[in-house]
Amino acid sequence: MSDKLERRSFLKCMAWAGTGVVWAMNGGVLGSSELVLGAKRKSRFSFVQISDSHIGFNKDPNHDVTKTFQEAVDKINALDDEPAFVIHTGDITHLSRAEEFDTAAQVLKGLKTSKVFYVPGEHDVFNDEGQLYRERFARGTQGQGWQSFDYEGVHFVGLVNVLNLKQGSGTGLGGNGFGQLGQDQLAWLKNDVKGLSSSTPVVVFAHIPLWTIYPEWGWGTEESEQALSYLKRFGSVTVLNGHVHQILQKVEGSVTFHTARSTAYPQPAPGTAPAPGPIKDVPADKLRSMLGLTDVSSVSHGDRLAVVDSTLV
Amino acid sequence: MRKRSKLIFTLIVALVICGVAVSGRTPGTNPNEVVIANFSFEPATLTVKAGTKVTWVNRDDEPHTATATDKRFNSKTLDTGDRFSQQFDAPGVYNYYCALHPHMTGKIIVK
């Protein structure tokens, strides 16, 4: 009994450290195995999630976020199993300036895979309601940038939850300021998944987490429950988010929630600092162990997807 | 005569101390300035006379905005050290927030 408990807390610890651990679900049991270099898992296909590149940020702890973003791209290009595509879950830029979007696009041109899907972060849209973002990164999407597509039997949905953010109810750090999906997008989502068989694996990606992580910092999405109610009947739902610049995960029924590291700077764990924002006092030689990307692979049809996080070093 | 100059001297000393005390409370700011630091507006509520120009200055390492709830004014991006000024002519209560971190809210009361 005590052995079991120790093992459980060990696994929890590994999840928070998040270095090279494979999380996979089979028959409702969460299991993990350490990533052994050279040990190949035969997957049908894989894709990579990158997030929060914050191009334009130039302060502690990272004065060259373009370089670390480039390193993430190099790491993707060096993967044994070439990913089918890349998903960027937002905050491409820091201040939604044209030259920041240009720099990001230039770095991403270096990817071997030509297909990149995007959803915006609040840093990409807050000056112009997302106009500049949509001109450059939302071609082929619907509404204000949402989209869906199918790949090898998996249904992918990209949601936009960073527009029309509502004012918090309190002063200072009170209030919510949660992500917003809006009724138009929710109606679209409901309709989008309506015709799918319940055995179709679904991947949902959006910038702000679709589960309430820490309301005091606005780390959640107001209508996430409504959105997830449309996905309840599916046997495998993987929700991929950014925004929090750290790995956090939760499993609820058939839904696995996962947030990715940033390629620019880490943020404090929920509630461990007076405010969110960059952790400034990271030693230069530690920074790259706090930045990274997420590799997601579909092992066999209908199974949960395996989510593997790796750091830049 | 000596008494009078002593009084003047005392007054000057008092004024200097006062001045230091006032500027020491909020270094480098004026009473019509809102400082953005640690993801909050300071002061969160500022009361001014009609016709006053209010200035926001961002002292955080994160970008912020001062955006009126009714969109009447909007600083757009305020990077570290950036300032934004808005004149308030009509009396009333002006609520605003940071468009990037909407849990940050503030209020200007114009009398």
Structure report:
The complex is a heterodimer of chains A (about 325) and B (about 110). Chain A has about 325 residues and is α/β, with parallel strands linked by helices. Chain A has seven helices and 13 strands. In chain A, the strands form two sheets. A seven-stranded mixed sheet of chain A has the order 2-1-13-12-3-4-5, with helices on one face. Chain A is globular, with a radius of gyration of 18 Å. Chain A starts with a helix and ends with a strand. Chain B has about 110 residues and is an alpha/beta fold. Chain B folds into two domains: about 1-30; about 30-110, Cupredoxins -  blue copper proteins (Immunoglobulin-like). In chain B, the strands form two sheets. Chain B has a four-stranded mixed sheet, with no helix packed on it. In chain B, strands 3-8-7-5 form a four-stranded mixed sheet, with no helix packed on it. The termini of chain B are far apart.
Please give a handful of descriptors for the protein shown.
heterodimer, A: 313 residues, alpha/beta, Purple Acid Phosphatase, chain A, domain 2, seven-stranded mixed beta sheet, six-stranded mixed beta sheet, 7 helices, 13 strands, globular, disordered N terminus, B: 111 residues, Immunoglobulin-like, four-stranded mixed beta sheet, 1 helix
